[in-house]
Specification:
14 strands, 2,3-Dihydroxybiphenyl 1,2-Dioxygenase, domain 1, 7-stranded mixed sheet, alpha+beta, 226 residues
Length: 226
């Protein structure tokens, strides 16, 4: 699953633009009043202001894939710039089932970002880690709902299937290239003290088009604009 575009909501786009531009070094491809877009490998990441004051509390979780052999260098780079998350005294997450290493950190709005090296992927490079080149894509976005199994079934109807294992409270769907992390509302995000809440997400998936994801009274609503 290729995530081509991801649009997230924020209270003030101008307050987080310097983080993505100057700290992470991602190229700005569009910047307008109330929104900006940066290039993250083959993905575009947009933050759009909303008039809803509740946007101040919006907290998304998403991940960037990096070359599978550059995790140590990437960790050294990011921890020199921002605090990184810890869990039981550890600051690196290793998943045996996914065969991946991750490190977690936050932007100035409190969004939870992740750098993940997936060792199942053939994307190693033989040069020093370079963020603009080696942030390869957005490969994960958290999708929070009160009814995970029903949401997973809806995605399956679109052809997006469970990744690795199915669960009633944490169910990734997609593949190594791109994953929706479908989680139950109130579940704690890994390597943070924050719990998952439902916020609108707009995402363009190659071959499916634009999907608008929003929690309704009966669970997740998925609108396909194509």
């Amino acid at each position: 699953m290729i995530i081509e575009k991801l649009v997230l909501l924020t209270e003030r786009a101008a307050s987080i633009l310097p983080f993505y531009r100057d700290v992470l070094g991602l190229p700005v491809i569009r910047s307008e009043q109330g929104s900006f877009t940066v290039q993250a490998g083959w993905s575009e990441l947009t933050f759009q202001e909303t008039g809803d004051q509740a946007a101040a509390a919006y907290c998304y979780h998403f991940a960037f894939t990096i070359p599978e052999n550059k995790f140590t260098e990437a960790k050294q780079w990011i921890e020199a710039l921002v605090p990184i998350g810890t869990e039981d005294g550890q600051d690196v997450s290793y998943s045996e089932s996914w065969n991946s290493h991750s490190v977690y950190f936050e932007d100035p709005s409190g969004n939870i970002l992740e750098l993940i090296a997936r060792h199942t992927m053939d994307n190693s490079v033989e040069r020093p880690f370079d963020p603009p080149q080696d942030i390869l894509c957005i490969s994960e976005i958290g999708v929070t709902t009160s009814d995970v199994p029903t949401a997973v079934d809806q995605f399956a109807e679109l052809g997006i299937m469970t990744y690795k294992t199915r669960s009633d409270n944490f169910n990734p769907i997609g593949d190594d290239n791109g994953i929706f992390i479908v989680v139950e509302k109130g579940r704690r995000w890994h390597f943070t003290n924050k719990t998952a809440e439902s916020f609108p997400v707009r995402v363009t998936v190659r071959g499916l088009g634009e999907l608008y994801l929003e929690e309704g009274e009966q669970g997740l609503l998925i609108k396909n604009k194509n």
